[in-house]
Amino acid sequence: MQGRIMPGVFTNPNREDFVEPSIILVSDTRNEKQAVKEASKTSTPVVALCDTDNWIKFVDLIIPCNNKGRRSLAVVYYLLAREFLKEKGIIKSNEEFNYKVSDFEAKVEMKAKQ
Predict the structure, then answer these.
(1) Is 29 exposed, middle or buried (0-12, 13-18, 19+ CB in 10 A)?
(2) Quick check: is 110 in a domain?
(3) E-state strands within the chain
(4) Which of 59, 1, 72, 68 is closest to 28 using CA atoms?
(5) How far is CA 109 from CA 3, 74, 106, 112, in A?
(6) pLDDT top residue among 111 and 46
């Protein structure tokens, strides 16, 4: 699941979009308080990218980083993806990871002013 969640997505099985995640990863706890709170109610582990000013209540694992900049987040997600694939045995070395940091940056299209 990607993006913001609506209240009840993790806790209300009557919702059409109900999910039972085994873990959630949030980029910024200030912006994703709803996801963190709901995950805590269902005992779902929460991994959060946190800066010095982040809210950490209900977070199980903190990855300290600058989570404000697009480039900084891209580097963190690049490293997480590479290490995850190595740990799973999908790739054996860093050289086998065929992505660049820029592949992890959000592609934001600017609409022309009308």
Answers:
(1) buried
(2) no
(3) 24-26, 46-50, 61-64
(4) 68
(5) 17, 17, 10, 9
(6) 46
Give the C-alpha separation, 70 to 35, whole Å.
21
Give the residue numbers spanning the domain of 50.
Answer: 1-66
pLDDT of 110 reads 47
Q: What length is written for the chain?
A: 114
**Counted domains in the chain:** 2
Rounded to the nearest 5 percent, the helix, strand and coil shares of the chain are 30, 10, 60
In which band, very low, low, confident or very high, does the pLDDT at 107 lie, cut at 50, 70 and 90?
A: low
Whole-number Cα distances in Å, 4 to 66, 90, 97, 100: 20, 29, 29, 26
At 68, list the tokens: 């404000």
CATH code for the domain in which residue 46 is found: 3.40.50.10490
Give 19-55 pLDDT, tens digit per residue. 999 999 999 998 899 999 999 999 999 999 999 999 8
Phi, psi (deg, nearest 5) at residue 112: -65, 145
